[in-house]
Amino acid sequence: MLYFVMNLHNYTKIGLLLLLTFLSFDLWSQQVLSGFVFNEENNEPVSDANVLVMPLNTGTVTDANGYFEIRNLKPGKYDISVSVVGFRKEMRHVVIREGDSKYLKIYLQIENTNLSEVSVIGEGAEKRILDDVMVEPVSLKASSGTISKIDISKQGAVSLIDAMKFVPGALIETRGRKVKQFFSVRGQVYPYPTYSIDGVWQKEFYESAYFINADNIQEIRIDRSSSALLKSLSPLTGVVDVISRKFTSRETDISVKYGSLNTFNAGIVQGNSSEKFDYSTGLQFFGTNGPAGRNGHERIVNFNGDMSWRINEKVTTHFKVLYVDGTRELVQPVYPAAPKLINQKEKYAPLTTLLLSSRTEFKPKEKYTGELQVNYLYRNPKYYVENIKTGATDKYRELECGFTINQMNAWELGNSNVLRAGILADHWRAPEGKRYYHGNPANVFTWSAVVTDQQHWGKWLVDGGFRLTQEYYKEWGGFAIEGSGGKFVDVKPITNEWQSPVWQASVGTMRPVNVLLSFSANVSAGIVAPRTGAITSDGTRPENEKRTNVDLGMIKKFNNSGLLTVTGFLVSRVDAIDYSGETVEQDNGDIVELYKNEDKMNYGLEVQWSMPVVSWMNIFANATAMKGEVRDSLDWIKDDEIPVFIGNVGANITKSQFDFNVYMNYTGRFYNDRFVDKKYLQQYGKAPLGNFFDVDLTAGYTLKKNRKVRFYIEINNLLNQKFETVAGYPDYGIIVSGGVKIRL
């Protein structure tokens, strides 16, 4: 039955039919007050605003989209108070009649307000979970961050990866190959941080992240901690959650940009909102010719559509479609890359990707929220590789598809306790192999269950959680993380076997000292089990990897709206399971992959600071100092494959019709042997990477008579540094572009 439900071409129609059937239920009516809160100056949503109903003294806080909802109100007259730090308090008077639902749009004016009225934790911690059942625990707040649409615009980001350049501790490995850019924080690689779209977990999404256009993004929420539990099935990795663009009224945005290397981006985004419906849709076309003589030609079409339907006061459903298509030549590397890579041309034509998802939120009771997620992923890229010397061309199809159902529930058990529980099922297939191997089919079923609890004990807020995940391999072949996968074609596949379950548990707490200062702590532990049949070089089964993660955080707010966050972290991996990149033939003739166990440790300190200097200028800085270590026999030695220091500084200036934004990143020295020529390795050892300054600048002018038109110029890599984050793939150097954005 599970196999039938998980088969793509059969379950798509069944899933849609079930969803429509579910949505057809019309739950009983009640009085509801809902709406959005916005920044009057820029029309952006205001999150964490306190919405209080007087004289009942009941209320809620707005979510990341500025949305609030209060149910079970009796008919009558009420005064609505909306307040948040940095804005003037707004009051509204409403009359609610029997069976009536009120929908409000409230705009707040900016004002520097003393923070003495606001709690760091707030009384809305439980309500926040009931509004968003996928939100991570408050104890991880110091280890998380948000990149808003305004931030994305100021940076001039074109893609999702571009928009994350200045996240604390971020390292973007640009290798110009099958996966163009890998994003990581805190040295969390293999596995890299997980992606989710609007809170919906994505499997094998790394190949698609680069192609998501930034114009379609409302904000990016990044949980840097390895303790992130709810949006990730991978034990102890961070999460990148991409929130789709939202509109509060009818709006059309048109943007055009052109620059060096024939680099361009053109698109249109349109959306609207009403009491029952809101939607956004966008179409973008971006590309580049790449560096001269090294391929790199790209032409990418990106379509995004989102719709929310508030069916009634108890049920809201969201639909999303993301479609990416086009062609991309993979940039040829230069020395010291391996000669094989230098002497071949690679491209994807096309690189088709389709994502369909729905989220249905139902709130039949004031103290219960449920969310049903249905997600479908389809990728069908065609990969071509040409040998420059012989002219021989090979082509492969890296088809993959996946279907996920996830049900999450939250119950407020009392005035100070919220319990969450959920279960997920996923079926993923790559019938012809993918990524760094070809010809090895993959057919994997996954199930996972999670439970968390959050409890107030006086001023202490305590949370805990546990996730269990297990996979069933219908078929799974070997593959290479690095370099060519040719040697793994003959690896004996795993068929019809359950893998060992993996688990992760966490416990955390947050304690405000006063309204301006709070401290938090979170500890997670878990295991990663080796695949069935895996062996080490001595012929034994690899040990289970035991992981432990610790986060210690401090959040300090200032009366003038400044913010300081300090976070210490430690990730310990005992018997870490690593791919050796080699195979061995056993006595019975079977070819199997070789694995190895190593003890690894990574620890460091993150500091974030932002401050409005004057009303028209804001500055920020963040820095991550970290150290990785690997046990060699009995001694710990430095892991030189992650930088010791990553820092960012920036300033945003808006004066009259002009705006000026400058960002600078410094990434420290690190080393790697990926894709490096063997002769180079023998003579020099690992290739030196990092140790560069990357400066970006944007400047704009907004028409005085028409504030909806902005002309701008952008300079990326102002210092023209040919830095490398992967050996043989230097940055393109300085890129100058200009454009215009029009809001209709």
Can you walk through the features of this model?
The chain has a 22-stranded antiparallel barrel. It folds into 2 domains: 31-113, Immunoglobulin-like, CATH 2.60.40; 138-469 and 479-743, Beta Barrel (Maltoporin, Chain A), CATH 2.40.170. The longest helix has 16 residues, at 8-23. It is globular. The model is unreliable at 1-29 and 112-123 (pLDDT under 50). It is mostly beta strands. 7% of the residues lie in helices and 56% in strands.
CATH architecture of the largest domain: Beta Barrel
CATH topology of the largest domain: Maltoporin, Chain A
Count of domains: 2
Structural class: mainly beta
The average pLDDT value, as a whole number, equals: 85
Helix content: under 10%
CATH class of the largest domain: Mainly Beta
* Number of separate strands: 41
Question: What is the alpha-carbon Rg in Å?
Answer: 26 Å
Topology:
Blueprint: H1 2-6, H2 8-23, E1 32-39, E2 50-54, E3 58-61, E4 67-71, E5 76-83, E6 90-96, E7 101-108, H3 125-131, E8 144-148, H4 149-155, H5 160-163, E9 170-174, E10 181-185, E11 194-197, E12 200-202, H6 206-209, E13 217-223, E14 239-244, E15 251-259, E16 263-273, E17 277-288, E18 298-310, E19 315-330, H7 339-342, E20 344-365, E21 368-387, E22 393-397, E23 400-414, E24 417-430, E25 442-457, E26 460-476, E27 494-498, E28 502-514, E29 517-528, E30 545-557, E31 563-585, E32 591-614, E33 617-632, E34 635-638, E35 645-655, E36 658-667, E37 670-672, H8 678-684, E38 687-689, E39 692-702, E40 709-716, E41 735-743
Parallel strand pairs: 1-7, 11-14
Antiparallel strand pairs: 1-4, 2-3, 2-5, 5-6, 8-13, 9-10, 11-12, 13-14, 15-16, 15-41, 16-17, 17-18, 18-19, 19-20, 20-21, 21-22, 21-23, 23-24, 24-25, 25-26, 26-27, 26-28, 28-29, 29-30, 30-31, 31-32, 32-33, 33-34, 33-35, 35-36, 36-39, 37-38, 39-40, 40-41
